[in-house]
Amino acid sequence: MTTNWTIGGVREAIAGKKVSARELTEEHYKRIGEKNREVNAFLTLCEERAYAQADKIDAAVAKGEKLPELAGVPIAVKDTISTRGVRTTCSSKILENFVPPYDATAVSRLETAGAVILGKTNCDEFAMGSSTENSAYGVTQNPAAPGCVPGGSSGGSAAAVAAEMAVASLGTDTGGSIRQPGAFCGIPAMMGSYGRVSRYGLIAFASSLDRIGPFARKVEDVAAVLKVMAGRDPNDSTSTTAPVEDYSSELKKPVKGMRIGIPREYFGQGMDAGVRAKIEAGIDLLGKLGCETREIRMPHTDYAIATYYIIATAEASSNLARYDGVRYGLRVENDTLVSTYRKTRGAGFGAEVKRRIVLGTYVLSAGYYDAYYLKGQKVRALIAQDFREAFQKVDAIVTPTSPVPPFKLGERTNDPLQMYLADIYTVTGSLAGLPGISVPCGKIAGKLPVGLQIFGPAFGEAQVLRLAHAFELAGGATV
Ligand code: GLN
Q: Ligand 1: does its nearest atom lie under 6 Å from the Cβ of 127?
């Protein structure tokens, strides 16, 4: 079996008839068969749909047709993203048997571009968490760091790519859920600007923060997948009409002279010494590439965690009200309507989801709205302003993705606050709506992957990708 497939490699092999899309699909299902029992990256497979798509690609090859850009590329999709006819659970008992009647726009765009959807991946329930341990369907192992969590919430998508069970995958990021598992599993992972990729068909957690984005083994592949999904969708009024650049050709532009801001607030206490050493080595590497690095200030960073957990839980409490045992999903019948609601939610939601519904309902309630939710929105504006001011002076901002390396399974499950605090570097860019990527930046003791995070200005995806690509080519993964 060929290993380390990239999108470019798939393209060449399929066009050159070295492999058929069907064979490539079989190869990936074979690997899933061998590894998934242990890794638990996939919750549901959709072989029939995958092979039908692969056969379509092979027929196009046989006829000598021009192939679309992702022809035959095996892709895994996080289980918070709707797939027509394929069970979509959000890793929750409440949606255990939910089969969406439509595809998310991101998924249909990938399939139109020739991608083969292999199946649905494990995650924290409703994308709430940072370790994939909040799934109702078991934990996912980190293939890059055995015994450790894969990060979260999109841990299954990151693990699927890291274990070569897929060439690329889709995750969702509300406060770090693409970037942090990318960092933990040692692969690049990107969230575009808010509105860059349609949220249609993404099951909502916090609507003003949620975004869909790709994982892959190369930055080039992240660029290719993002490009296919990006762009205005009439089904999502928050998707933007801003033009989509050709990210793949943008990668080739030079990074010499790029001005890079290093925010002092991101290098304070709480950062693991091993992570710090790798990030500092990564910043040195950027300097060697001819980038001009300088210290900047982001004075509202300290308030980001509190702000994020107020806004995200408030929106979640409202979005999750739809799981009432009446419309769809689990229903636990009881004497009255109210007790049916109660029993359904009691049985259907896990502890973390319940905690957030309670917290979110509280911060939105009369008398507390002004003190918490409204205040949170004001601070959010100040955090966005920190970024706007910084981007007057620099082209990109570089930080660690996570203050800690991958931690052991079970190590943090009893301390939700500790888990929340570790989102410190990712939630800022989420609140500000900006694009961010995590790119591999060495391994602590040769074992635990570290991720370097790059933020760009709104709709500056091309420059973020370009810098990440240059960093990767220069050997960022082994600093
Ligand atoms: N870890 C963060 C949370 O628990 C982010 C989750 C996400 O981005 N979906 O909310």
A: yes
Please tell me whether the overall predicted TM-score, pTM, comes out greater than 0.70 for this model.
yes
Whether 375 sits among the annotated catalytic residues: the reply is: no
- Indicate the domain borders of the chain: 7-246
- Does 408 participate in catalysis according to the annotation? no
* Contact yes or no for 134/124 (Cβ under 8 A): yes
- Which atom of ligand 1 is nearest the CA belonging to 129? 4
3-state secondary structure at position 130:
coil
The answer to whether the CB of 128 is under 6 A from ligand 1 is yes
Which residue of the set 20, 91, 108, 153 is catalytic? 153
Query: What is the C-alpha radius of gyration for the chain, rounded to an integer number of angstroms?
Result: 21
169 CB under 6 A from ligand 1? no
Query: Could you report the average pLDDT of every consecutive run of 10 residues in the chain (479 residues)?
Result: 92 97 98 98 98 98 97 98 98 98 98 98 98 98 98 98 98 98 98 98 98 98 98 98 96 97 94 97 98 98 97 98 94 97 97 98 94 97 98 98 97 92 96 98 97 98 98 98
Question: If you take atom 10 of ligand 1, which residue's CA is the nearest one?
Answer: 128
Choice among 20, 35, 78, 248 that is catalytic: 78
CA distances from 392 to 174, 259, 266, 434 (A): 26, 11, 19, 15
Q: What's the token pair of residue 94?
A: 């409440």
Q: Are 240 and 274 in contact (CB under 8 A)?
A: no
Q: Locate 462 and state its tokens.
A: 């091309």
Query: Do β-strands 396-400 and 259-263 pair in parallel, antiparallel, or remain unpaired?
Result: parallel
Residue nearest to atom 4 of ligand 1 (CA): 129
CATH top class, domain 7-246: alpha beta
Phi and psi angles of residue 474, each rounded to the nearest 5 degrees, phi first? -80, 0
Measured CA to CA, the distance from residue 154 to residue 120 in angstroms comes to 11
Place of tokens 């500056």: 460
Q: What are the Cα distances from residue 337, in Å, to 332, 341, 357, 434?
A: 10, 6, 20, 43
